[in-house]
Design a protein that fits this description.
elongated, 2 domains, seven-stranded mixed β-sheet, 20 helices, five-stranded parallel β-sheet, alpha/beta, about 35% helix, Ribosomal Protein S5, domain 2
Length: about 500
C-alpha cells in the first residue's frame, strides 16, 4: 500500500492511495476531498508518466484518497499518485504488499522535487508502523526509517520494485544521526559569522545576565534609553546558545519541516532557533494558524529564543497571548472542528524603552511623556506577563559584575551550570516544578532571610519568588556547582537580576 501525508497542525495525518482501473471513457478522477493543488496533479502526473517512458492507462482511472472526510492539500501528492497509477497498471507491482510512504512533487519531465513536511510525514509513518519511505533527494529523514532518495519517477518505481530488498533502502543509525549534538554533560557551541562578542564594549552586567539566562533557560527582559546597546547585546545571545540535544532536535526539526523552513539535505536541525518577529506581527503569526494550522513564531522558537525587540510596540493582545505558552511550553490551536497542540517551550527575550519617548529616568535628557502615557505604555506588558520573566535588567543603571567576562569564560560558566543541572535533576532550572524547587533549591538560613526581606520590601508574588530561587540556583551552578545549598550571595545576585519595575502596573 502506498501512503502519503496531509499536514495539519503538529500531528498531521497519513493518507492511503488507492487506484482502480475500469472500463469507460479515458479520464482520471480523484475523490476524497482533494483541493485545487491535488486535483491539478492529474495533469502533472500524466505528463510525468509519459515523459518518463511509461504508458498511462487507457482505461478510466479512479484515485481514492483516504480518509475521505479529511481535506487533502499541497503538491506533495504528485509522486504517490503517479506511483499508485503505475502500480495499478503493473501486475508484478500489485504483488508487493509492503507499506511505504511516498512524498514528492513532479515536474512535467518526470523529475521529483522536494516538498515541505517530509520529515514530519516520515516520523508520523514510523509511529504508525510504516518503516519504508521513497522521498526526493536531499530530504530530511528520521532514525528508524528505511529510506530511498530519488530524483525521477523512474527511480521511484525501481525503488518500489525493490521494497523487499533490504540492501536497497538505507537506514541511518542513531549514532550517525546524533553526532554533533549537545548532551547534558557536553554543551557544544557554534561560531557565528557576526561581530565578535568580545568586541562589545561595556554592558558587563547585561552580558552576564544573558549568560545566566542561557545557563538556566530563564526568560530575560532588558530596558533602557534608545541607543544604549540593549538590542545589540541581546542579538549576540546566539553566541551563548549551545547546540540542541538530540531529543530537543527532533521536535524542532518537525516544526520547521511543517513550516517549510528546513534546509534540504539537513537531517536534524542542530542550532537553537533565534526568532526575531517584527512589531507588526499578528496573533496568528505569533501563535500559528491558517487553514492547516501552520506553526507560528513561538513554535518556531521552540527550544530556542523568541526575541521581541521594541517589545512595547507589539500589540497588547500579542504580548498577553504569550503568558500561557510561557507557563505550559505548548500552544493549542483549533480550526473547523479540529485541534492541534504545538510545542512552544521557548525562552522569551525582550528589549524595550522606559517610555514612549525613551528618556524616562535619563538625567541628561528631558522626558516629554505624561505620567498617564508612561502608565499606558507599561500596561501593555501587564504584571502577569512580567511575573513570568525571571531576569529583568536595567541596561543603563543596572549593576555590573566584578569583571567583564569574555565569550570563552561565559561559555565555560554555561557549560559548568549545564553539567551540574543535568547531573542533579536531569533538566534545566527554569523547568523545575514547585515540588522540585523545594527538593533541589535548599536555601541557607541567611539566604532565606534575605529573600524574605526582599519579598516584604517589593511584594514579590509566589511566581516571582520561584523565579528568584531558580535564578539563584543557576548562579550557584555557574560558580559553585558542587554546593548542595544556595547561599546569600547567590540570592542577592538573583534579586538584583530580577529587578524591580515600580511603574510596571
Amino acid at each position: 500500500m502506498i501512503y502519503s501525508f496531509n499536514p495539519f497542525g503538529y500531528e498531521g495525518s497519513l493518507v492511503s492511495i488507492e487506484v482502480d482501473l475500469r472500463r469507460g471513457i479515458p479520464a482520471t478522477d480523484i475523490i476524497g476531498l482533494a483541493d485545487g493543488a491535488v486535483k491539478e496533479s492529474r495533469e502533472r502526473m500524466q505528463s510525468a508518466i509519459r515523459n518518463s517512458g511509461f504508458n498511462y492507462p487507457a482505461e478510466r482511472v479512479l484515485i481514492s484518497l483516504s480518509p475521505a472526510d479529511l481535506r487533502k492539500e499541497g503538491a506533495g501528492f504528485d509522486l504517490p499518485l503517479a506511483m499508485g497509477v503505475l502500480v495499478a497498471n503493473n501486475e508484478d507491482c500489485k504483488k508487493i504488499n509492503t507499506n511505504v510512504i511516498v512524498m514528492g512533487e513532479l515536474n512535467l519531465a518526470g523529475g521529483v522535487q522536494p516538498v515541505k513536511g517530509t520529515y514530519s510525514a516520515l516520523t508520523t509513518a514510523r509511529a504508525e508502523g510504516i518503516f519504508y519511505a521513497i522521498v526526493p533527494k536531499g530530504s530530511e529523514t528520521p532514525v528508524g526509517m528505511k529510506v530511498r532518495e530519488v530524483e525521477t519517477l523512474e527511480e521511484a518505481m525501481i525503488a518500489y520494485r525493490n521494497l523487499d530488498n533490504e540492501d536497497y533502502f538505507k537506514e541511518k543509525s542513531f549514532e550517525e544521526l546524533s553526532e554533533g549534538f549537545s548532551t547534558g554533560d557536553n554543551p557544544i557551541f557554534d561560531d557565528y559569522d557576526i561581530k565578535d562578542f568580545d568586541k562589545l564594549q561595556g554592558h558587563s552586567g547585561l552580558k552576564y545576565a544573558m549568560a545566566v539566562a542561557m545557563a538556566g533557560r530563564h526568560s530575560l527582559m532588558t530596558y533602557g534609553a534608545p541607543g544604549c546597546g540593549k538590542t545589540m547585546i541581546l542579538q549576540h545571545a546566539i553566541q551563548l546558545m549551545p547546540r540542541l540535544t538530540f531529543d530537543e532536535a527532533q521536535s524542532v526539526t518537525r516544526v520547521w519541516s511543517l513550516a517549510g523552513l528546513h534546509k534540504p539535505g539537513e537531517t536534524y536541525i542542530q542550532r537553537r532557533p533565534f526568532r526575531i518577529p517584527h512589531q507588526t506581527a499578528s496573533i496568528e503569526g505569533m501563535c500559528g494558524g491558517g487553514p492547516t494550522c501552520r506553526p507560528g513564531e513561538i513554535s518556531l522558537a521552540h527550544n530556542g529564543i523568541l526575541f521581541l525587540d521594541e517589545a512595547a510596540e507589539f500589540r497588547s493582545s500579542v504580548l498577553q497571548m504569550l503568558r500561557v505558552p510561557l507557563e505550559n511550553g505548548t500552544i493549542s490551536l483549533s480550526r473547523a472542528g479540529r485541534s492541534t497542540i504545538f510545542p512552544a517551550n521557548f525562552q522569551l527575550f525582550m528589549a524595550t524603552n522606559l517610555c514612549p519617548c525613551g528618556n524616562y529616568g535619563n538625567p541628561d535628557k528631558i522626558c516629554i511623556c505624561s505620567a498617564k502615557s508612561v502608565e499606558q505604555y507599561w500596561k501593555k506588558f501587564s504584571a502577569p506577563l512580567l511575573d513570568r520573566v525571571a531576569i529583568r535588567f536595567d541596561a543603563v543603571n543596572g549593576e555590573g559584575v566584578d569583571k567583564d567576562y569574555t565569550l570563552k569564560e561565559l561559555r565555560n560558566l554555561i557549560t559548568i551550570a549545564w553539567k551540574a543541572q543535568y547531573k542533579r535533576q536531569g533538566m534545566r532550572n527554569q523547568d523545575l516544578s514547585p515540588q522540585e524547587i523545594l527538593d533541589y533549591i535548599p536555601l541557607t538560613e541567611e539566604a532565606r532571610k534575605e529573600l524574605d526581606n526582599a519579598t516584604l520590601r517589593f511584594g514579590y508574588s509566589p511566581r516571582a519568588i520561584s523565579n528568584i530561587m531558580k535564578v539563584s540556583r543557576t548562579v550557584m551552578d555557574m560558580h559553585s556547582p558542587e554546593s548542595t545549598t544556595v547561599d546569600v550571595d547567590a540570592i542577592k545576585s538573583a534579586i538584583r537580576l530580577h529587578g524591580h519595575i515600580e511603574f510596571a502596573n
